[in-house]
Amino acid sequence: MPKCINNSKKSYKGTEPSPKGLGYCASEEEVNTKKKGRDNNYWIVKETKNKTKRWVKETKTTKTTKKTKQTKLTKQTKQTKKKGIYSNLTDEQLETIYKLTKTLRKELKKINVNVYISKLKNINGVYYKDLIHTDKEVEPYLIIVLKLNKDKTLNTITNEINIHHSGIKNDITNQVDTLLKNMFKNNYNWNKKQTSTINIKL
């Protein structure tokens, strides 16, 4: 069975309707943490009388949940938009950027995978790479590559973001793959080889 994203010592079947079916063990989440389950309903971590954490399906109406999520996303989008390099992106693209630079980093930290961001400048049509600093990056890690236009906005010609990586192997490979699939669905592409780049569509 695959290992949980937030605890490599625990396993899950993948058929559970709760977030555990997506790789999130309740025991490693804080009480009142809310996540969408495999059944597309929202679940909350609750503590039993025996001090054991369990996923419990949220009882609030779908309408209220969607409104809360949209309000939160709008706030996040506005915060991201303040940054000049993202001023040319659509709200949908901003959501992807937020997931990459904020949510993904937070989730990967739980399995001890570091995430770095590398901004590449466009000088006379050439992107100068400054990806690897052996005295800075700590394996295992991912490097999110952001190519900038001459006006310093994000280049979206290819409509995708490339992610370089190092030290992603064995169980960590499957955990990272599961996390990215759950987060980006069909907009994610990677064959799980150490020599291949991870691609995320904007």
Verbal overview:
- With 202 residues, the protein is α+β, with helices and mostly antiparallel strands.
- It has two domains: 3-57, no CATH class; 85-201, no CATH class.
- It has helices at residues 62-81, 91-109, 171-184; strands spanning 3-4, 7-11, 34-36, 42-47, 53-57, 114-123, 126-128, 141-147, 160-166, 188-189, 198-201.
- The strands form three sheets. The protein has a six-stranded mixed β-sheet with strand order 7-6-8-9-11-10. It has a three-stranded antiparallel β-sheet with strand order 3-4-5, with no helix packed on it.
- The model is unreliable at 131-135 (pLDDT under 50).
Keywords:
3-stranded antiparallel beta sheet; 26% helix; globular; alpha+beta; 6-stranded mixed beta sheet; 3 helices; 202 residues
What percent of the residues sit in helical stretches (DSSP H or I)?
25-40%
- What profile does the largest beta sheet have? 6 strands, mixed
Order of helices and strands: EEEEEHHEEEEHEE
* Rg calculated over all Cα atoms: 18 Å
Q: Are there runs of 5+ residues with pLDDT below 50, and where?
A: 131-135
Calculate the mean pLDDT score and round it.
83
Number of helical segments? 3
User: How much of the sequence is in beta strands?
Assistant: 25-35%
The assembly state of the depicted protein chains is: single chain
Derived structural class: alpha+beta
Q: How many domain units?
A: 2
Number of strands: 11
Strand order of the largest sheet: 7-6-8-9-11-10
What sort of overall outline do the alpha carbons produce when their principal axes are compared?
globular
Please give the alpha-carbon distance between the first and last residues: 32 Å
